[in-house]
Amino acid sequence: MLYQMEREGRKLLLHLIERHDGKKMLEVGCGSDELAKSISKKFGASVECIDPYGYGKNVIRMRGEDIAKLGKKYDVIYSVMSLHHMNAHLFLKEAIKALEEDGKLIIVDWKKGIETGVPEYYFSLDEVIAMMENYEIIEKGETRYHFYVVAKRKN
Q: Would residue 117 be called left, alpha or beta, if left means φ above 0 and alpha means ψ between -120 and 50 degrees?
């Protein structure tokens, strides 16, 4: 069941990237670099990925909260089922510094209250939006297992 739930989250992310794509992307909380490779191939984008415990040839070992230290700007920064592993408020504060002028932040994560078998705190959509005071929300919603937000920096 968990595999199916995770697959639905990745499918949702791909759907959102299709509508809000860019040529330079960053995956935050990648685990392995497999999803990044798939997105790079599907969308013809350059995709970097970070994870403090990640593995794979192209993974930069770094926390999501530290992305501004990369010193780069991205068209799209995305995180799928990883926000709950970070200090979300700090990540959102730092991510905005790494977005291009019209760059997008895409977050897909487990809905609060969902049972994944892992005892972690999952945010509600409203909790995440409340932390995004410096962002303009472009798109948001919920599915059976996940919530999603697409945002850009406020002008």
A: left
Residue 81 confidence class, pLDDT cut points 50, 70, 90: very high
The two three-digit tokens of residue 51, written as one number: 């994870």
Burial of 118 per CB tally in 10 Å (0-12, 13-18, 19+): exposed
Q: What is the pTM of this model?
A: 0.95
Contact between 9 and 80 under an 8 Å Cβ cutoff? The reply is yes
Which domains are assigned to the chain? Answer: 2-153 (3.40.50.150)
Q: Is the per-residue pLDDT at 36 higher than 80?
A: yes
Tell me how crowded residue 8 is: count the other CB atoms within 10 A of its CB.
15
Helices 34-43 and 2-19 pack at an angle, to 10 degrees, of 30
